[in-house]
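Sequence, please.
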């Protein structure tokens, strides 16, 4: 009987000790501050993006003029072999021009992405936010910090 009483006391003590640690662990939970930003609004305000869009439009217009000149040059050729040679030449040049425009634009986009990322991280840290999401990923809750990040966008 003493053994069963002692076992009961020890089990009760172990249960109470485990329950106490469990409560202690859950009472220390830190709540995260959550924010969100409107990335589309930040991108629209970016002067680098505006310049990249303008440059891309100009390069596209220049490419269309070049294409018209190339087409006229091909039409001037009298022989089928001459036309075929010029078509290959101009197709290679067109591919290179398209790649150049695409690469230039992608480089600017990457630059803006890095700038936005750094600006958002800086402002979130200043304001004490643990998590920042895109506005389109949030249904309910969080704080909009877009207007705070906007002055940091270049």
């Amino acid at each position: 009987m003493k053994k069963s009483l002692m076992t009961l006391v020890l089990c009760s003590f172990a249960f109470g000790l485990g329950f106490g640690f469990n409560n202690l662990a859950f009472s220390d939970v830190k709540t995260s501050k959550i924010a969100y930003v409107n990335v589309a609004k930040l991108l629209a305000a970016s002067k680098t993006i505006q310049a990249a869009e303008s440059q891309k439009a100009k390069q596209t217009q220049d490419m269309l003029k070049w294409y018209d000149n190339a087409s006229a040059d091909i039409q001037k050729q009298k022989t089928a072999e001459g036309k075929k040679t010029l078509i290959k030449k101009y197709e290679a040049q067109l591919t290179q021009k398209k790649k150049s425009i695409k690469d230039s634009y992608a480089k600017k986009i990457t630059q803006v992405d890095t700038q936005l990322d750094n600006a958002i991280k800086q402002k979130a840290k200043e304001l004490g936010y643990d998590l920042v999401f895109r506005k389109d990923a949030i249904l309910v809750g969080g704080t909009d910090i877009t207007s705070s990040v906007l002055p940091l966008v270049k």
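The beta strands are 34-37, 131-134, 143-144.
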